[in-house]
User: Fold these one by one.
Assistant:
Number 1:
Amino acid sequence: MDIKLTTGKTFPISEEESLLQALKRQGVYLVASCGGKGICGKCRVRILEGKSRITSTGKLVPQEIKAGISLACQTFPEEDIFIDIPKESKLIIGDKIALSKSGNLSELLKSLGAEISPIVRRITLNLPPPTIQDNISDLERLRKSLEERDITGIRFNHEFVSSLSDTLRDAGWKITLGYTVGHDIVYISPDDVEKGRYGLAVDIGTTTVVVYLVNLIDGQLIDVGSTYNSQMRYGDDVITRIIYAAESGGLGELRDSVLSDINDLLNPLLERNNIRREDIESAVVAGNTTMTHIFWGLNPAYIREEPYIPTVNFFPRWRAETSGIKINSKAPIYSLPCVASYVGGDIVAGVLASKMHRSNEIALFMDIGTNGEIVVGNSDWLVTAACSAGPCFEGSGIRHGMRATEGAVESVNIDPQTFEPTLGVIGDTKAMGICGSGLIDAIAEMFLKGIIDRKGKFVKGLKTGRIKDGFEGPEFLFSRNESREVVLTEVDIENILRSKAAMYAGVSLLLKEVGLGLDAIAKVYIAGGFGNCIDIDKAIILGMLPDLPRERFFFLGNASITGAYLCLLSKDLRQEAGIIASKMTYIELSISRGFMDEYMSALFLPHTHLRLFPTVQKLLSTQ
Amino acid sequence: MDIKLTTGKTFPISEEESLLQALKRQGVYLVASCGGKGICGKCRVRILEGKSRITSTGKLVPQEIKAGISLACQTFPEEDIFIDIPKESKLIIGDKIALSKSGNLSELLKSLGAEISPIVRRITLNLPPPTIQDNISDLERLRKSLEERDITGIRFNHEFVSSLSDTLRDAGWKITLGYTVGHDIVYISPDDVEKGRYGLAVDIGTTTVVVYLVNLIDGQLIDVGSTYNSQMRYGDDVITRIIYAAESGGLGELRDSVLSDINDLLNPLLERNNIRREDIESAVVAGNTTMTHIFWGLNPAYIREEPYIPTVNFFPRWRAETSGIKINSKAPIYSLPCVASYVGGDIVAGVLASKMHRSNEIALFMDIGTNGEIVVGNSDWLVTAACSAGPCFEGSGIRHGMRATEGAVESVNIDPQTFEPTLGVIGDTKAMGICGSGLIDAIAEMFLKGIIDRKGKFVKGLKTGRIKDGFEGPEFLFSRNESREVVLTEVDIENILRSKAAMYAGVSLLLKEVGLGLDAIAKVYIAGGFGNCIDIDKAIILGMLPDLPRERFFFLGNASITGAYLCLLSKDLRQEAGIIASKMTYIELSISRGFMDEYMSALFLPHTHLRLFPTVQKLLSTQ
């Protein structure tokens, strides 16, 4: 039995296989936030020809079903089948979030006063060739020469010693040696061979994976690669990943997924820049606690079970060959240290990149990504919490939510009289869905223009045809074209309010814990690729960000990869990252008595206590 | 085409395969000192039925050929073949040399004042279980607990961390940890599990491999295993092995051979004593420099090329999994350090076992094995040399030479009137050949009784039918029975004189180098399994040992395995072994100007200068 795509591709499929599985097997990845359980409704395909058994239609509305739309994960062909995969169903690489770049990295490095000091140290040795009088062994000759340069205690691995005799003789006893502070040999090469020094900074996000190829001599960012974390196939958030990891073989599958992502990103970088794999001598990875555990193949199960204990926070510097990253096999991999089960190395990296840990002023750091982590503090102290905000700003759990790719509504203005919306769509094309910044805009506008009330419910009796009864209750129609409607439902709005409430309540609670008010915050750092696209004013109207003067807000972009880049290049900054992680006090919100109150108060637009949002209060009063 | 043995075994053979190869493939090992080149003449078989192509008859005499004897390595069957393998052709395990035991080892350990301190340290930890307040990661919890016991800097390997979370929880947070001074984790186990502590001492001789299974708690020797080093298939001495290693794949083959020997010895030891493989937590290997290199898979080529440089003398403590010994995969393997290309860890182990390095008195240490190594010195200094004595005392290069197994002539007395010999044969059976001690006896007797002159040549005109013209010139007939003659030829005698001359010249030269005379030597330690069987008086008559008062001679047996045992049990003694190896000054005899003179003088019986052998002089004058 065959499956044929409108692109012309044809390949075999069996009766027991869902379309999703068969497509995945062929390297055609669909968005499947729920991991193929028929819940998220994202893996839509249009069946053009052929009979199939459909086990569930999930969130599909009747007119979609009529139009031949089916969920790939719930569709099992009964004969040759011909399908079309709509754009919005495809996992596409290269969206705004994944590619969000940091600023001038070398400038940042300089501003931190850090000298370039990579993880691998390099030394050139000119050994005296042996004679019958000076007949110590090759390894002792090397040891002696290192001792003369005050380098002792090196651990010589077996592979290195196995090739030592020939290497020394081939090199005419003049060699370059790479070794780590932990005293492992990374490489040996003839001195007269030009050997580049390259490193990788890797950000393993729950959703995206970003790789920086860096010249370790001058700190130059040579090239960048990014892709979706293909663990997405198994679920959108860390919890579904942890659950999947516990299934037989699940951990290995998840680990292999992200490793393939990294290695697949690496290949074109090497080729494009004409760099040899073995010349990549070190790597730094930053990820949340679960992502880092999975990357190293460590069981993340206990992260999720009370009392929420990771296996490791400070990861040993294992070698590339242990990790599976295909660079110099002995290259040390530095993992940004984690703080707790839900505050990981990505946040430590972000704080490092923000420099808030060096300042007397109190700052608030917010990472608005798949999860939501916040840090408050300064050079003396740091407190942190994870908000379980959920990935709704990345499109998950929102009827027409999508990531910031072509076709996503990213900005919304609504006419106060006619309630007609004006949409900004990425790629200036037809709207296919709404991305995170679009959601913020949409809700802020709907609230300001009186379409929804402070509880997020549609105001009854408005003169507009845009509000209609949908599949899940009332919804607002943003656009409609031949292929698709884009709506925002009351359920969607509820989900977003929950997310923003979780984040705001987290901030409130952290401040309460340290006995400070909002006004104590001198700076707010917004991290996460998504952060870059936010309209601060709208996010304050939503009540997601605290109502502070706009000049206190700073966008860091992907601060996790920035921090990884810094650690790749500087010993001092690696040390600082360690200090940051040790210093941070983690507050477990789920058991904090005050959190639920804060959360309930924040479920309103912008908040139960309007006085906390004076600029919004003012805006509303002038409307 | 089949090959059938008189034992009843039948197995296939192809035309291109020599009988030697086919037998080897089936696990039937023949003595083949030359590695199957048709030179040594040891792999004799008797062809009872079947035609075959014989490419060379080597050293076989016409009557042997007539009797159907053929060299297995030179015989290629042309049809089904039926053969008998004479006893003396078989490699037999369990000869006197291989099984030669050391004395009371625990006594020796005690006499060295060494406390039991194995390579792996053990600690029991009772960790506080995590709570939501005390939520550091599992690894940090362990680190903290170790720090409280002043153990820092442990390197946690990936495998260990991978299983840590489950192990800690399964063990109820009470664990036993094994780790090395080098800060590697070896094992973790629940505290309430009774865990034995065992170690292996391994002597890798050029000819034999001996394994001691030791209880690391009380130092008790639990069991012993020994076998031939199956590298013997590729040649008798280290030089042929080095050459074979250089051939494609040769190194791997040699390494696999000795590893199989060790692992094959280990299996019955574990079974007999009901010990789990993973409870063997450490091992010590002692071998000469070539054997140690091959054991670790290191190319020994440069050992043989001027200026004779080993890759390593002081071996890193790699893990069992790296070595291939099938014990706890993370068990550290300590290799006795080597001194130079031809003075290895076996000699360092021997010196340690002799205690000569602790005494003010000057001692001479002689290892009479496949090679011949000597050490002179005391607690202040040590000099050493290798004599290239060759393996003729182990039967190699001697027409009817054999190892000390059943059927070997081990002692000889000759009637001064009739010249009729009285033979002591191992196993009180028919003589099949002469072993090392028999050779010493035979030549000393023949010399004392006037059958050979001081040059080792047969005296002409003696009234005896025992001297006859053989295949290679004159020879002395020791015994004859239906199956076989046992003779000693003039060529054999020449070979032995060369061996003993090399050893004696080595001793003379070392003493000259340090400006001492023979009389300075207060003690002579004879090591090597073979040493135990030597008649000191006869060896002095031969001029192999210096003519010193008999009470100065001490037999150490297999001092290499004794030294390995000591290092397995004591940190101080491992340190001492390192000091011994560092302290020893190696004299390269082959380039020493005085050596050739000394050697030429020592080619006589007992020596050119009879005055050096006063007791022999006296004996001769009274005859």
Number 2:
Amino acid sequence: MYSPTPQLCTTKIFGPAYTVQMVDAADTTSPKPSQHFVDGVQKDAVVFISQPEGFYSACWGGLMTTRAKYLGARGVVVDGNVRDLGEHREMGFPVRLCPFPCSSKCRKRKFTDDVVHKQVFAKGTSALGSNTFTRASGLNVPVQFTSETQKRPLTINPGDLILADQDGVVVVPVEHAEKCLKICEERFEIDEKTMEALENGEPMGETLARLRK
Amino acid sequence: MYSPTPQLCTTKIFGPAYTVQMVDAADTTSPKPSQHFVDGVQKDAVVFISQPEGFYSACWGGLMTTRAKYLGARGVVVDGNVRDLGEHREMGFPVRLCPFPCSSKCRKRKFTDDVVHKQVFAKGTSALGSNTFTRASGLNVPVQFTSETQKRPLTINPGDLILADQDGVVVVPVEHAEKCLKICEERFEIDEKTMEALENGEPMGETLARLRK
Amino acid sequence: MYSPTPQLCTTKIFGPAYTVQMVDAADTTSPKPSQHFVDGVQKDAVVFISQPEGFYSACWGGLMTTRAKYLGARGVVVDGNVRDLGEHREMGFPVRLCPFPCSSKCRKRKFTDDVVHKQVFAKGTSALGSNTFTRASGLNVPVQFTSETQKRPLTINPGDLILADQDGVVVVPVEHAEKCLKICEERFEIDEKTMEALENGEPMGETLARLRK
């Protein structure tokens, strides 16, 4: 999944998931939410929209982002299509383009204000709105991420922590968050030392054997 | 394979379709046009090339654009692959990059000269030319757009109005053009009011119920 | 469909292939190399990594590029996924963004220093590292490139010449290099004349008939 601006930007989004399950608009048996799905966005949430496969239409656009932004969303991840790319850029929501090339050291970046920036991540774009194609069904329910190459089934639960940058989207279940943070900090430190060794010409094999014990 | 980067530009192309049906170069039974397909491009047309599925080669490149530009084409849409990306940029044809970020309001944009700009839209790129892979067959004939996720079959007829921007490509049959324009103008106005309401914190559900009656 | 705006850079990579065959990490029967695969990179080589299909993980990242850069690699082509995009940019390795628009004539470009620039080309990105997903097996062995639309099977042999730019990746077997260069020079000259004729308004059909005899 990619941000509707290239992968030029080194900014990230991070926050707990507010999940939305879309279904075929022709599906009359699935539940219907009591409110418009975007009105349920909580402050500081990352909206995660699951669009059923096989739809050519977009299920997120400029009006939705306007409302989500007002409600304080930190970002949006659409497992499906988005539209109104120009409008998003002008809204300052999905795309803060970095100076090229970025001069600060990536590995040393913390979650300061200039790195965390509101953005939309999506699989694709479409000029078609959702009307007559899809509609929201479940709000804050577990949703599945599927892809041809993602072999292990992946469930996104409401409240799961979502972290997304130009490399992709990562979902961390809340119960693993503390352990995950600890591992990341340890690995971050090892990676820093590895990078330094490699810059000094040490071979990869020996460096990994020494530092990743 | 491509290096990561995407849709930066808020410019559009718009015009009546000049359609070209490509076929397998090995196909000896399909019609052969009496002229080179690019010599048939009319002034102000948007060239729409339909490349058969399953080909890794490009069916449009820098020489073709040079000729189409000379004949006054407003743009090119390739349901297939394009090559010579650098050459296209240098020709000022496919890519007019906008200042980042764009400062003018998107929804207020009209089709002024700084918004409509000659560009090529394509599904993908290839370093291979069309020779030995595909050849032109029908000129200004109905062509089909197909994609795994486009469920409804879509025919592009010569003269259909093509509008393309960073969200995607839209085809409007001439007989629906006037009605479509009217609906768009109405919807544009509703969207403007909706956006204003959302910016003022009105919920999406109530706003849509009030304005999209 | 998207505009060829994406690939913004007109720089190229060029060099002999150092090939790496990745296999499923669970595969215990395939050979294991005696050294870390990135330590085998030769000076001036283009690293070509073949990741088996169906993996969601990345098999190349910032640490690998740091080592390959130290060893003097000219570029990397990954038939699979890459991560650490920000880090790569900061390292000055994969992405040297050109001024927009590029002003020099593309067709007249030679392989001067400002055109050849170290870069990574990949099919996709992933936030996941290779651990538990894939591992290196053969080093400097013939590898296969596969894609749904690439109908003719393509083998990349160690030492094959790799040339990659924004249009795609081309592989030239060493035994054909001289003949290929000769054909390219001839064709380059014909294309220059064709371009000039087209810019002067000569029809494509007649121009090709006259110049490509």
